[in-house]
Amino acid sequence: MNHPIDVTSLTAHLSFSPAVPNVSAAVRGGKYQYNVSLRGDFQHDTTYTLTLAAGLPEQSGKTLAQDFKYTFSTKTFIEGFNIYSIRTEAEGKQGSAVLRFTTNPMLEMADLQKHLSFEPALENFKLERGSYGDAFSVRAPFQPQISYQMKITAGVKATNGDELLQDRTASFKTPAIKPWFDFDQDGKIYFPRKGDVKLNIESRNVKDAKLVLHKLFPSNITLALSYLNEKRSGYSYNHYDEDGDGESEYEAPTDSSNRWQFVGLSEKVGEKQIPIKFVKDQLIKTPLNFQELLPKDQYGVYCVEANTSNVNSQIKIILNTNIGLIAHWRNDELILFAHDLTTLEPVSGGKVSVYSSKHQLLGTASTNSAGVAHLEKFKEQLGKPRVAVLETKNDYTFVELTPRAEDSKVIETDGPAYDKDGYDAFIYADRNLYRPGESVHLRWMVRKTTGDAVPDMPLKLEILKPNEKKLISEATTLSKLGTGGLDIATLKSYPTGTYRVNLIVPGEEKKFVGSYTFQLEDFVPAKIESKVAVKEQRW
Predict the structure, then answer these.
(1) Given this structure, which CATH class describes domain 423-520?
(2) What is the DSSP string of 36-79?
(3) What are the residues whose beta carbons fall under 8 Å from the beta carbon of 307, sequence distance 6 or more?
């Protein structure tokens, strides 16, 4: 249709032969074209004739001069139904397989759950919808390297209302469980006390491992942290730019495990081969004890690298120190507090070095009798303060420096900046919460900053889905009163979440005239049931 019409008038002038119960209509469109969506209880394999009766009015005042007829046929769901793109993959530490598949057409997830089964049987499987409406995933205790058959039984509903008339099956085989190898403690740093490092290796389908212990040079701590923060744990600490040409130098491997040494940033302290109990496809926890590797009474910052064949090496920084170090910002001044973790006495005379995010030395200081050091006036061109290192005669430690919080909170305004030459739109709807499949009735009015209407002005309408992808992007023209509107017939396959409506000045994509949000959620309206009874029957 190329003229706007009222939905109520359309429904009143609409008929089908044979008759169709529960017919509903939705109209959407822009300046030059309007689309009509019709829903009803259509029968499969049936030919229908649609009639728009003469007299159907347009919003311009004109009417349809004569009856309009259109003949079409429906098809059975079974003709177009298919299961495709079916695959399985092993995920995460647990190693269990995840089944992913898509269907055509899109199915109702709640109904699919009732009609989905597997052979061999699976109990307590979890069905999830993927990022696209026709995609699904199944999480279940699949056995590795086993052939399964998935069945979708007749009667399952599609989002368009069709129904599967015959069972459909698809076969797949689960993959082998992948090896797993990692420390059981989260984070890049482990801080033991009493000298006993209670750290474990979690592994699956791994028979042995080798531990290599290194002691970090204090000046290289910031670079080591950069590697770990960038999740480069598969790299050893031998990658460094020695001659300043922008390329990383490294030394050749010298150990039988063919792993790179931490020679670039640290000194090697020792290594140890550890046996790991092997139980096929099961997660095994192996306790580690570094007492044999850690030098006696040598404190500081260590790195342990755990290696095994066919799996990436894992790295953990170990703080084997008796110094506690706290950092605090006061304006642009950095204040450090150092104390003994055993006696809680201040650590005086310690050398403090602050390194930047560019791995440059920003400044040095010494802790006073109270264990406090003050540093300030850092050169911004050398990078932001990243790490503070404290060294004593027999020990050293470090603290990562987080960005300094503002000393006073900036006063922020709730509203946008005033633009005397701009426009302001008020966008609204009949409500802000809808179920998938319902129609959203959007309306807007646009005014100048003086309050005057903006007649016949072209704007760009943009509606974003919850994943920020565009659902609608089209031109719209305001009426002579500076108003406009759009009726959106949502589909049950639409993802749930927050949708954003933007009115934009054409050619200025970042200049919003107005914005509005509405929710698309599956919900059941609250219902109240009341019963009234009277004792006297004559009432």
Answers:
(1) mainly beta
(2) EEEE--PPTT-EEEEEE-TTPBPTTS-B--S-EEEEEE---HHH
(3) 209, 210, 211, 212, 257, 259, 313
Q: How far apart are CA 302 and CA 7, in angstroms?
A: 73
pLDDT, mean of residues 63-68: 88
pLDDT, tens digit (0-9, with 9 covering 90-100), for 28-61: 655 445 667 677 777 767 888 999 999 888 777 7
Q: In the chain, where are the structural domains located?
A: 7-74, 78-173, 180-320, 323-400, 423-520
Tell me, what amino acid is at 17?
Answer: S
**Nearest of 492, 499, 503 to residue 461 by alpha carbon:** 503
CATH number of 180-320: 2.60.40.1930
**342 contacts: CB under 8 Å, gap ≥ 6:** 322
Q: What confidence tens digit (pLDDT) does each residue in 217-272 have?
A: 898 888 888 777 765 444 444 333 333 333 333 333 333 333 444 557 888 888 88
pTM: 0.50
- Choosing among 2.60.40.1930, 3.30.70.100, 1.10.10.10, 3.40.50.2000, the CATH entry for 323-400 is 2.60.40.1930
Contact 229, 236 (CB under 8 A): no
Residue whose token pair is 């469980």: 177
Going 451 to 457 to 462 to 463, the CA torsion angle's sign is positive
> Could you report the per-residue pLDDT of 336-367, keeping only the tens digit for each?
999 998 889 999 999 999 999 888 999 999 99
